[in-house]
Amino acid sequence: MTARRGLVLHTVAAVVTAVVLAPLALPGYVLRYDMVFVPRQPLNWEMIAPADALPRAVPLDAVVSVANLAVPGWLLQRIALVAVVYLAALGAARLLPTARVMPRVVAALAYAWTPYLAERLLLGQWALLLAYAALPFLVAAARDLRAGRPGALPRLILAAAPAAVTPTGGLIALVTVAVLLPLRSRATAAALAAVAALNAPWLLASLSSAAGGSSDPEGVAMFAARAENWAGSWVALLGTGGIWNAQTVPASRSSVLVPVVTVLLLAVAVLGLRELRRRWPGGADRLFILAAGGFVLAAAGAAGPGVALLEWLVVHVPGAGLLRDGQKFLIPYALVTALGFALGAELLADRLARRFEPAAGRVLLAGAILLPVVVMPDLAFGASGALRPVRYPADWDVVAARVAVAPGEVLSLPFEGYQRYDWTRGVVVRDPAPRYLDAPVLMNDALRVGAVTVDGENPRATAAQALLDAGRPVAELGARWVLVRRGPVAEPPAPVLAGLRLVYDGPQLRLWENPAAADTGRLAGAGRRMPALAAHLLAATVVIFAALGLLRIRRRSWYGPRTHESGEEETWPSWPPS
């Protein structure tokens, strides 16, 4: 790819990122649902292998804690969110098999300006979106590894690494490698072993946790894909939307025209996917299989037989709770749709240019570029201000300092994992205590969805809830500290706090100490977590060696087609290579 074309694509990615994340120019932290960044996140055993909870944030929390040693939380959040949008746009543009710039720009907008990205961003699942941004680079690296290009294996590992910071992203990366690469190949075996090592931290952490491997089957219905307009849940999924939480859906998705535009986009994409098969023989079919599998998982919770199967799996198969929120597995489908739409627009533009004049083709491509923005304009400027940063109250620093002096387990009350606060402007936020305090925090892992409560898996959280329901003193749990977050939820009654000593009373937080608790709290038992620590070190070693290996290879581009000295761009390698 020529330097000029590359500059255009980088500029487009930068502009899209700036428009989507404009509010991040303001100071503070964007706090929404699962997106909780703090000034300095401590590194402790709970980040490496949670004692009583499922490792949903493993190795993510450990990675953030290590990064926080060099980068403050407010800057780290901006780096992560910019990487999501920028790399999603750039990766899709570079992956498209064409030498022309405008179709690549179409692919960039079709992948970086989607309902999937918008809804997951509003749900605060920025780490899952790292897998979304990494997938085009992972596909390109798998393509190059199949073709025997130098440096493909380390590039594949480095592309899979950001995806593997969450269990879902790690599984998507592992399945992508398994589907796109041929069987009975040394390169495939090496790639699968490396990506499996990247998944090892959360796998081994789950073995050391006291949390049960089964999940509440009611979560299948609660997390199922939902309709966003008159066309139903399946059409919402076809448009890469359909997330379970209605509060994180852009208002534009309810428009009566959205299903019509979705059908139009898919019609153009089908035309383009036929061209993708021609330009990428064999490889495109494997990518289609990956996308179809992701779509089936996404739709399973919305169909009768799929619901019954998922309910059985989450009860009887440890770890199958990952499948309840199936819509998150739409990532490969979103990429295939973006590539197909861009190639289909290119073909239609060529036909229009031949029949009329070249300007007509360029107008059509310009319309294809703007179509995602026109259909969902409220993703711009931080989803119309929804991603506006806020500041933590000073109470959090005071409480963190008190707890650091005498470490021990912290019971966080009210016993709600998600809560609205006046200082977050009423936005629902996951309890920041586990990331702000350098101590194990006992919080409610059950989730309220409307009038239904989906049970969690933490046995100590279940015991705490039983004490609270009975109105008994929480001091019986043995936690050293009890943190009370002030907000719209009523504070616990006096009998619940009996036997505790108030040590801090602030406008937003109150901290109570349990004199009867042991000094060490629940910090014991670190020895059984050593396998999880070893897995983290293994994953880090794999990434470091991949980076060093890539540095030794004299290549100028990470991804996509290369340019010969003559200036003529390489075509995509055949699959299998000739």
Automatic annotation (TrEMBL):
This protein's UniProt keywords: Membrane, Transmembrane, Transmembrane helix
Regions that span the bilayer: 7-30, 69-89, 124-145, 157-181, 187-207, 256-276, 288-310, 330-349, 361-383, 533-553
Name of this chain's protein: Uncharacterized protein
Organism: Actinoplanes aureus
Lineage: Bacteria, Bacillati, Actinomycetota, Actinomycetes, Micromonosporales
